Amino acid sequence: MICVHRRRALAAGCCVLLPALFWFGRSATLERMVVPPKALVIYSFITEQPLLALTFDDGPELHTPLVLDLLARYNAKATFFVLGLNVERRPETVKAIVDQGHQLGVHTYSHRQLPKIPVTELRSELSRSADLILWASGVIPTCFRPPYGELNPAVSRVVREHGYSIVMWTVDSSDWRRGTALTISSHVTSTARPGDIILMHDGLTEMSERLAALEMILEKLTAQGYRFLTIAQMLKECDGVRPQWEQGP
Questions:
Q1: Which of 231, 38, 204, 238 has its CA nearest to residue 144?
Q2: Residue 161's closest CA among 138, 144, 147?
Q3: pTM
Q4: C-alpha distances in angstroms, 26 versus 13, 32, 45, 48, 142?
Q5: Which SS3 state, helix, strand or coil, does residue 191 take?
Q6: What residues act catalytically?
Q7: Which DSSP category does 138 fall into?
Q8: What is the pLDDT of residues 68-114, one digit of tens each?
Q9: Contact assessment for residue 76 and residue 218, using Cβ atoms and an 8 Å cutoff
Q10: What three-state secondary structure class fits 233?
Q11: Cα gap 189→215, rounded to integer Å
């Protein structure tokens, strides 16, 4: 397995010299992205364009290919915050995510509550997951989402030392609850606004209602003129980021 620590050290050196620059890359191709240096935790994006960031946590799992099929049908791109233990089990799905133009992010190796574990174990959760993503896809991940959305200053500091942007959300689909497709989709479509980051899951055991909800969300919001982009694409297309949650109008 390839270790990314040396590359991360190089990226960290670049961030010391140019704190506004983060590097997004695949294989040998690195794409420079500009991020406000104070945007340590990104909740949403500033834009008047009909753009949304659709994100999926806890995969890849058995139903992830069906999620990819739905995204392709609506020409939508998404960011998948994957678990290292699932990357080990389904490397071919991880590669398919990248091959279809989506983005990968770190969601730790085993979905632990990070504020409750020692720093050494936190570092292991991050580096082990990143190494597996690189092994399966050839991609060095550049963004991170904490399990359960749980952060504290110590966790944030270690995550930043690894060179990640921390990505949260403004629209929680609540698909992790046992709601119906209509309940899940109605909540998302009624609350989503330009620049929002939508939280969904592709790592749930029961996915039939979630897949139906995803199709309803894609169909309705696409019909309203929205485009779905990855986090990296949103950073390019939008005017800036909101580093904290703000109540919309």
A1: 231
A2: 144
A3: 0.83
A4: 19, 12, 23, 29, 10
A5: helix
A6: 57, 201
A7: S
A8: 999 999 999 999 999 999 999 999 999 999 999 999 999 999 999 99
A9: yes
A10: helix
A11: 12
